[in-house]
Amino acid sequence: MGSVDSVRTTTGWAARDASGLLSPFRFPLRNIGVEDVYIKVICCGICHTDIHQAKNDLGISRYPMVPGHEVVGEVLEVGSGVSKFKVGEVVGVGFIVGCCRACNPCESDEEQYCKKKIWTYNDVYTDGKPTQGGFSAAMVVDQKFVVKIPDGMDPEQAAPLLCAGLTVYSPLKHFGLSRSGLRGGILGLGGVGHMGVQIAKAMGHHVTVISSSDKKREEALAHLGADGYLVSSDASRMNELAGSLDYILDTVPAFHPLEPSLGLLKLNGRLIVLGVVNTPLQFMSPVLMSGRKSITGSSIGSIKEVEELMLFYKEKGLTSQIETIKMEYVNEAFRRLEKNDVRYRFVIDIAGSKLDQ
Question: May I ask the CATH architecture of the domain 166-297?
């Protein structure tokens, strides 16, 4: 990866402290190395993780921090060794921009589990310089961590696939849950959850949305096409559906009990934790043992998987439900996202916000 130099700079919106408040910030980009792609950012999705990081909820934040890891842009320049991309193509950048390339995960095309991976923001390159994300006008990224957006796909539609969509697609593929005929549950109907419904339905699954209240019932059934809706506080219905699900994708990014979900699983059922939670989750072991059930986790997905997902979405004719905003609205968008007041993913119109003007 090239070294950081002040010759080329760009503007992003950065958090300066744990308040998480974002404001304009000018910062240097790396020189374009042999394997690098210089990208003009078109749009960038907003994820709950952006809030966690901006507010130092996980205790690992570095400031100033430019968030953003669902980045779609246009290639403006490529290094002399770049073979995957050409100037003018529309491309995407997800959650990581570096890895060791030599460990077992890297050699198995699962670089998201590399212990030396470099996050798109709130991290440092191998030379110690900070990474900054897609809430900015431009990025320089190694071609290995860039994906082509399929021709004809809207950039705003592609952005949520780079994290939210990938987060649910990867475990379904890895755990052998992509075959048709399964019965799945989606716990939490937010940005990740709504994509979980779409992807699972497109794979031929019977899908039940599990929520803490009844307020999203119509949205889940009438608009997203879920087959069932279950309120977790409805003890009668929870008992009725006990042992009925092959898997549950747990997308809730806040503390919640696991036992109710475990009770819904069949023999050998799997609860897959996808939400970032900064407090310990709890369960009683007999609930797990009585059905040989398992609790597991999954982190985003690989470059190979996001390329598969892009083609899957295009082939199936799927679209994400998004709300497009300008950068000036980003702090209000953060506040709304914390209250789950979005259907279902914010995408920032970076190009339209004219950050470098």
Answer: 3-Layer(aba) Sandwich (3.40)
